[in-house]
Write a structure and sequence with these properties.
The complex is a heterodimer of chains A (104) and B (243).
Chain A: H1 3-23, H2 26-29, H3 32-55, H4 66-79, H5 84-100
Helix pairs in contact in A: 4-5
Chain B: H1 9-39, H2 44-54, H3 57-68, H4 73-98, H5 103-110, H6 114-121, H7 126-158, H8 166-178, H9 185-201, H10 209-214, H11 216-230
Helix pairs in contact in B: 1-2, 1-3, 1-7, 1-8, 2-7, 3-4, 4-6, 6-7, 9-11
The chains are: A mainly alpha (104), B mainly alpha (243).
Chain lengths: 104, 243
């Protein structure tokens, strides 16, 4: 699939998901079990994304590199209530400086 | 229809100010999305198309993150769409007070994201809810797109993204998006289980798939939490299913 197709199909799905909430009868999705699961979905997906972005190397290898240090710094800053841009900037700076120092 | 109380001028201004400040703050994140997107190999135009047409930050970060890591288009679309499901659930709540029809409803759907929903349902009066939703949604749309453009141009001028740690910036951005969702016991349990699933499956399946498998954690924890609730057992502190 080329990148444009991927981008446009994903955009279409994103809109249809948003629009569905305006046309689907509310009671269909308001079961307590369904709403619990959907409330937890972002946490599970974001956590999965963090792990793959941090540990995945070439050809499915698990690697420990500068990205792990960057995520640790991000975690500490979030715990110290730093804002979004500071967290993202510090994560990038950590990885960049470690690579400059010769650690992949 | 019940007669609605007029909103005082002071109250209206207060809600508008709230919406615009959320819009400006959120819009600034657009810089990091723009830079990460071009670093992942997308063009400036593709990056801008995502911010304009997809317009839901988590899904956008996920899509470019997976494509940048060599994942297939299908897994990128699937993950972005799974992350976008919550917008549909927000829409269910927003449609209760918005009362939008026709083309206005299409625009409302497009603007249905975390921030506009949060500001909208955070108000007491129905009129304030509507103002909060529209002002926040439009402010974020404008800010997010302008700053995406700035970030995309800056990202293009930087060269090899790894030198600047932009790959780690993506992981940092996901950490910041995850953080507020760890305030409940169920949220923490789902995140930990998802992390284990992803880590175990990275060597076994193609890039992008571990994230989708991690979503199963939400089903498992949600199912258990629901059973516990049904039996009237106390949940973990703060385990209310608020989105």
């Amino acid at each position: 699939m080329n990148t444009w197709t991927t981008v446009l199909v994903a955009c279409l799905f994103a809109f249809l998901l948003k629009f569905s909430g305006y046309v689907v009868p509310a009671r269909l999705l308001e079961g307590p079990r369904v709403s619990r699961i959907s409330a937890l979905l972002p946490a599970a997906l974001l956590s999965g994304l963090i792990v793959t972005q941090t540990f995945a190397g070439d050809a499915g290898r698990i690697v420990l590199d500068a990205r792990l240090a960057a995520v640790a710094v991000a975690g500490i800053l979030l715990w110290r209530k730093a804002n979004f841009l500071v967290v993202v900037g510090a994560a990038a700076a950590t990885a960049a400086l470690l690579r400059l120092a010769g650690w992949s | 229809m019940t007669v609605e109380a007029e909103l005082s001028e002071g109250r209206r201004k207060e809600v508008v100010r709230q919406g615009i400040s959320v819009g400006v703050a959120t819009g600034l994140y657009g810089v990091s999305f723009g830079a990460l997107s071009v670093a992942s190999g997308l063009t400036v135009l593709q990056t801008q198309a995502l911010s304009l047409l997809m317009f839901t930050g988590g899904s956008q970060f996920a899509l470019v993150g997976i494509l940048g890591a060599g994942g297939s288009g299908t897994s990128a679309i699937a993950t972005a769409s799974l992350l976008g499901i919550r917008n549909g659930l927000y829409a269910l709540q927003v449609s209760q007070f918005l009362g939008a029809h026709g083309p206005k409803r299409l625009l409302a759907a497009h603007l249905t994201i975390d921030e506009s929903t949060a500001v909208g349902i955070g108000q007491q009066e129905p009129r304030a809810q509507r103002i909060g939703f529209w002002v926040t949604g439009l402010a974020v749309l404008i800010g997010w797109n302008l700053m995406t453009f700035v970030g995309a141009l800056a990202g293009n001028a930087l060269g090899d993204p790894k030198t600047w740690g932009l790959d780690a910036a993506a992981a940092g951005a996901f950490c910041a998006l995850l953080w507020p969702r760890l305030s409940t016991g169920d949220g923490r349990a789902a995140a930990v289980l998802a992390a284990f699933i992803a880590l175990l499956t990275i060597p076994l399946v193609p890039a992008g798939i571990p994230v989708i498998l991690a979503a199963v954690a939400a089903v498992i924890i949600g199912w258990i939490a629901h059973g516990r609730h049904e039996r009237g057992e106390p949940g973990l502190p703060g385990s209310d299913p608020t989105p």
